[in-house]
Design a protein that fits this description.
The structure is a single chain. Helices cover about 35% and strands about 15% of the residues. The protein is of the alpha+beta class. A hairpin with a 2-residue loop joins strand 2 and strand 3. The radius of gyration is 19 Å and the shape is globular. Bound molecules: adenosine-5'-triphosphate and magnesium ion. Magnesium ion binds next to loops. This is Serine/threonine protein kinase. Keywords: Kinase, Serine/threonine-protein kinase, Transferase. GO terms for molecular function: protein serine/threonine kinase activity.
Length: about 270
């Protein structure tokens, strides 16, 4: 990752979105197609959030995590991943069990790297998982968006005490303001797997579940062999979830190995 003092020139720029003082664009930089986030405001909180996101992305390096190519005080430059998000794939149709398990396994591989680096993502959801070439496979996963992440290496946590996150995908303890517990990410991967299989997340009224006023979970989707993994990841109590991303990935791989012979005949 290169750290520049001066703004980099991006050619053939096309704006994709502008939100919270940050503009996302696709363009060309040094001969490759890039996805650029540009900070448009001098507002202190947005500036801090932007620096935080860049600082966390800069410390990661894994084939299933989108790499930060370059950073200036107002730009974050990533390679443009063609193919769209996992959300777009799910919207077209829920995934067959094999594809869902492989995508979730890929996400967990990326998450294992984050956790080994002392980073908790805190916003895992299909919108933040790109699929290279639009393929619903583990090796096509590219994890993005460290805007809400927590890093043990950073002395201060800019999101400390907040309830930041996306209610459908947020673990109950994260909703209560607990930051930096890797098991919160495992809950989110459980919801993501549920969403892949069912086409929607488990709780229609996610806030009601988070505050503890109901337990109305939609029926577990997919083959019954997957249900123990879903059930374990979606536990309200983090202690009752898999202890690590590696443990959850091993359980998914074992499940897929039992299903694969039958799936081959589908
Ligand atoms: N490297 C990339 N290549 C291609 N598309 C990307 C890339 N990074 C992000 N995107 C697209 O841009 C969207 C927003 O990016 P990101 O999640 O990093 O920002 P955000 O802060 O969540 O913004 P928003 O709130 O608008 O979703 C993603 O959901 C995805 O569609
Ligand atoms: Mg996002």
């Amino acid at each position: 990752m290169q750290d520049f003092r001066v703004a980099q020139t991006i050619e053939r720029r096309r704006v994709l979105a502008t939100r919270g003082g940050v503009q996302s664009e696709v363009g060309e930089w040094r001969g490759q197609t890039v996805f650029v986030k540009t900070l448009l405001t001098a507002e202190p909180e947005a500036t801090l959030r932007f620096a935080h996101e860049g600082g966390i992305a800069a410390g990661l390096s894994h084939p299933l995590v989108v790499p930060l190519l370059a950073r200036t005080p107002r730009q974050l430059i990533f390679p443009f991943v063609p193919g769209g998000t996992l959300r777009e794939v799910i919207e077209a149709s829920p995934l067959p069990a094999g594809a869902a398990l492989c995508v979730a396994t890929g996400v967990l591989r990326a998450v294992e790297h984050l956790h080994a680096c002392g980073v908790t993502h805190h916003d895992l959801k299909p919108e933040n998982v790109l699929l290279h070439g639009g393929r619903a496979r583990g090796d096509a996963v590219r994890l993005i968006d460290f805007g809400m992440s927590h890093s043990r290496a950073l002395g201060t946590d800019i999101h400390d005490g907040t309830r930041m996150g996306t209610p459908h995908f947020m673990a109950p303890e994260q909703f209560r303001g607990v930051r930096g517990d890797p098991r919160s990410d495992l809950y989110s991967v459980g919801v993501l797997l549920f969403d892949c299989l069912a086409g929607s997340p488990p709780y229609e009224d996610a806030l009601g579940w988070l505050v503890g006023i109901h337990e109305d979970c939609a029926p577990l989707p997919g083959p019954p062999e997957v249900h123990p993994v879903l059930r374990a990841a979606l536990q309200r109590d983090p202690e009752a979830r898999p202890a690590t991303a590696g443990e959850m990935r091993a359980a998914l791989e074992k499940t897929w190995n039992t299903l694969r012979p039958a799936a081959a005949w589908d």
